[in-house]
Design a protein that fits this description.
This protein is of the alpha/beta class. Helices cover 36% and strands 21% of the residues. It has 18 helices and 23 strands. Strands 13-12-14-15-23-22-21-18-19 form a 9-stranded mixed β-sheet, sandwiched between helices. The chain has a 7-stranded parallel β-sheet with strand order 5-2-6-1-7-10-11, with helices on both faces. Strands 16-17-20 form a 3-stranded mixed β-sheet, with helices on one face. β14, α14 and β15 form a beta-alpha-beta unit. α5 crosses α6 and α12 packs across α18. The protein starts with 5 loop residues before the first strand and ends with a helix.
Length: 539
């Protein structure tokens, strides 16, 4: 194994949303399967310090790491593919880079020099890139540069990695460029010109890609591969086809077939070794494709127009479906469109109901009605974060008889604040990075659904919230049948609630979706889908 960390840089061209994160994750999976220690880092060119303050409509889901970093959703892909935790160092933003440089300037660390993009900003970018590799002593670090080549905001990153290429040496770095080869139906042709122009922009910035990954809807002919290789100055075996597939989890197998990993290892002067078997991965895909039954799960949220807003939840449901050998048909249901008159119609045909996380009052009453429908009709229910809080509000209103029960996030002066601001959140005015974030312990009650799922009494799960179940109402809730089955041993915070009289009714204050991977599907999601499947088969 190598003594020096090698770096792979992944850029994108022609258009955004081509799947740099999936290609990076797939390559990392293949290298990991060949025995190398690998991680992936995302460089995001927006000026926000992190995506924690971004509306999900802007940037999709905010993924949270074990160490409490609010990061880009691509880190979720990295963890799901590699089954390895990421950290704060795996996501770098322009806001974080400039914040660091300006703080140094204010402290006088630049000794009166004029602070400029080159070298000060680019030096900070390079320091952050190398930090993740040196701290963890990894064999390979894959760095994905967000955005599209040619974007003004990406230029400092492109310049930084150009400099790194020469600082690291010829066999210690490799550049992969992901582009689109569009198909023109009118002429029946795949067109390579956009790829040529995209590579030209990279060359103008001093970077010659070593590998081109071409996204395409149709198979690439040998002539197209040769044309791209000739005009873009790459070897023929470095022109890689990335054709559309039915699931993102097929991409590692596709890249293995295209020998992307071998091409990169040869460029980095690393031993190739035997072809990885990827046995567990192939078994997962086989289960995914050979599902013997289908269950319908209603995903109730207020950002359902953008599937990426609930990316980790959707992927966790897919993992759980494969584990139960059934296909999970996820039906997004907008909570703002649910009211007392149509709730039964909106949720008709759902075998299970999951009420998603979120913030703010918009759509909250629709979520509460969805919880009530699931509880009263004995439909398996899973509430996550705000979804759990909604279940407490609903139970307090309709079972305890507290008609005005609410969260103080929604109604500050309610007489029954069953959900209230956490004590350590009071007095905090800044929004960014100030929530309860990262992994915290939880003790499980034996005999509960949670205990049956985890099969251990002590767990750790990731959080992202400001509000909690108000323990002043806990005795009243438990007396009427809503039990606290998961408690933080240090603070007494209720982490999990259940209704034992119900076939499967579980609400969790944490975010289990963040820890679900292909190799280790999350036990709560697995048990939820198992309950959903059992409910269907018993009818």
């Amino acid at each position: 194994m190598p003594q020096k960390t090698k770096y792979i840089f992944v850029t994108g061209g022609v258009t955004s949303s081509l799947g740099k994160g999936i290609i990076s994750s797939s390559l990392a999976k293949l290298l990991q399967s060949r025995g190398y220690s690998v991680t992936i880092q995302k460089l995001d060119p927006y000026i926000n310090v992190d995506p924690g303050t971004l509306n999900p409509y802007e940037h999709g889901e905010c993924f949270v790491t074990e160490d409490g970093a609010e990061t880009d959703l691509d880190l979720g892909h990295y963890e799901r593919f590699l089954n390895v935790h990421t950290t704060q160092a795996n996501n770098v933003t322009t806001g974080r880079i400039y914040q660091s440089v300006i703080n140094k300037e204010r402290r006088g660390e630049y000794l009166g020099k004029t602070v400029q993009v080159i070298p000060h900003i680019t030096d900070e970018i390079k320091r952050r890139i190398k930090l993740v590799g040196t701290k963890q002593k990894l064999d390979v670090v894959i760095t994905e540069i967000g955005g599209t080549v040619g974007d003004i905001e990406s230029l400092p990153y492109i310049e930084a990695v150009r400099q790194l290429k020469y600082e690291l040496g010829p066999t210690n770095s490799a550049f992969i460029h992901l582009t689109l080869v569009p198909y023109l139906a009118a002429s029946g042709e795949l067109k390579t010109k956009p790829t040529q122009h995209s590579v030209k922009i990279l060359l103008e910035n001093g970077i010659q890609p070593d590998v081109l990954v071409l996204r395409t809807e149709h198979p690439l002919t040998e002539d197209i591969r040769r044309k791209v290789a000739l005009f873009c100055n790459v070897n023929l075996n470095a022109v890689i086809e990335s054709i559309d597939v039915s699931t993102i989890y097929e991409v590692p197998l596709l890249m293995l077939k295209e020998k992307l990993d071998i091409t990169i290892l040869q460029k980095l002067d690393l031993p190739v070794g035997p072809t990885p078997e990827l046995k567990a991965w192939k078994q997962f895909i086989a289960k995914l494709k050979d599902s013997k039954s289908t269950v319908k799960v209603g995903l109730v949220g207020k950002y359902i127009e953008l599937p990426d807003a609930y990316k980790s939840i959707m992927e966790a449901l897919i993992h759980a479906g494969a584990s139960n050998q059934c296909k999970v048909d996820i039906t997004p249901i907008h909570s703002e469109e649910i009211d007392l008159g149509n709730v039964a119609q909106k949720l008709e045909g759902m075998n299970g109901i999951l009420v998603a996380p979120g913030f703010g009052h918009r759509g909250i009453e629709g979520k509460i009605l969805a919880v009530q429908h699931a509880r009263e009709n004995k439909i398996p229910f899973f509430g996550i974060c705000l979804g759990m809080q909604c279940s407490v509000i609903e139970f307090s209103r309709n079972v305890l008889g507290f008609a005005d029960a609410n969260s103080t996030e929604m109604t500050r002066n309610t007489a029954h604040p069953v959900i209230d601001l956490m004590e350590d959140q009071k007095g905090i005015s800044d929004k960014g990075g100030t929530m309860r974030l990262g992994a915290y312990p939880c003790s499980l009650a034996e005999g509960s659904n949670a205990f049956a799922a985890y099969k251990v009494s002590e767990i750790q799960e990731r959080h992202r919230h400001r509000y909690e179940l108000n323990n002043a109402f806990l005795d009243a809730l438990q007396a009427k049948g809503m039990k606290a089955t998961g408690i933080n041993p240090d603070t007494g915070l209720v982490e999990i609630i259940e209704i034992p009289e119900h076939p499967w009714f579980v609400g969790v204050q944490f975010h289990p979706e963040y820890k679900s991977t292909v190799v280790n599907p999350h036990p709560l999601f697995v048990n939820f889908i198992k309950a959903v499947k059992n409910g269907v088969s018993s009818k």
